[in-house]
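[Automated response] Your request has been received and processed.

Submitted sequence:
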Amino acid sequence: MRRFERAPDAAVRLVCLPHAGGSASFFFPLAKALVPAVEVLAVQYPGRQDRRHEPPVDSIGELTDRILAVLRPFDDRPLALFGHSMGAIIGYELALRLPAPVHLFVSGRRAPSRYRDDDPRGVSDERLVAELRKLGGSDAAMLADPELLAMILPAIRSDYRAVESYRHEPGRRLDCPVTAFTGDRDPRVSVGEARAWAEHTTGPAELHVLPGGHFFLVEQAAPMIATMTEKLAGTALSRP
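Generated structure:
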């Protein structure tokens, strides 16, 4: 768990879960933007950055269980969750396991019950790198460096295995609010697939469609942060 900015007076903690191949540092700008009203915790998956020597985990269930264990010291305040792409699925599974999450924010991912047959696991390294360039979100210089690629591709492939082997268990639903964000040109998520997140909670659900592709949240950070701030402020005010 990485905490870039301490916010001792924050009423809510927001747990952020990276995309496939992503790392905790992706959420550093969000942590700066939300402090001091919200304290951001970002998860660092094994197999990347300062955890690069640890074997990656290729199971959404195991990743969720491990994260749940390290969240226990932080549950003295209400917890909200935010996941992008693969992180959205992990956020959903965490929300199912946590006693009372106050909000689930998801972006760049179709609802858990929506599947596609577009598994890139068996493709060559060249085709996988081309896919990463197409989606954006990865440093172009890093993708062009053979030594760096050799370091990061095992974690990326492990993440892809985790996502593509995941299957939602029918009948399970959240009772917390869910806010979904999607890009209007995301090749991996249609608006309909993003709207289906509403089927996975008995609480209120919203969908915000913003301009951009799979990593629309980089260019559209301002409206997303405004929405998250509003929702979390409402949560804090509604608690005793």
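Summary generated for your ticket: The chain has a mean pLDDT of 89. The first helix runs from residue 28 to 34.
If you did not submit this request, please reply to this message.
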